[in-house]
Amino acid sequence: MGKRGIPPQPEAVARQKGYYRPSRHGQSNEHIGVNPISTQNIPQPPEDLGADAAVFWNRMIYEMSSLEGWITTLDLAAFGLMCESFAECKALKCSWKKAGRTFTDRNGTIKPNPVYKMWQDQERQLKAWMQEFGITPSARTRINVIQPKVKDEFDECYL
Predict the structure, then answer these.
(1) Domain boundaries, the chain
(2) Which tens digits make up the pLDDT trace of 61-93?
(3) Hey, CA dihedral for 115, 133, 139, 41, is it positive or negative?
(4) How far apart are the first and last CA of the chain?
(5) Is the whole model's pTM more than 0.70, yes or no?
């Protein structure tokens, strides 16, 4: 069963509109996850990923690992599937852009290109994966992530 109701508003919007409540909009400080991936331990893409999927992997895993707890080692299999979905979506888009959205059959009837429909389906699947990982703007409002604590010289010397 999917998520019910409309996606929650970002905290900044709730504050601006005057209905901000920490119990509903505040970030949780609880860290959930096993072996979070950080910028120091970014895994390489699996060997079975294609070139486009591997490029997407490298670009997205770096961004996601910059926030502690956003992605963990448990998420890597699903993350790989999202990368493959991206690569397939890109390949289908290139294919229908070359052939066009429609074609004329032997009777002279203009019909939609089946590759275009396949691309639309793959794009929906990619969007679902991106929502699962909190990559879309509305999905990020549902994720509680701990910001990495930045060390400064004052803390090291005086605390």
Answers:
(1) 34-141
(2) 988 888 766 788 888 999 999 999 999 999 999
(3) negative
(4) 49
(5) no
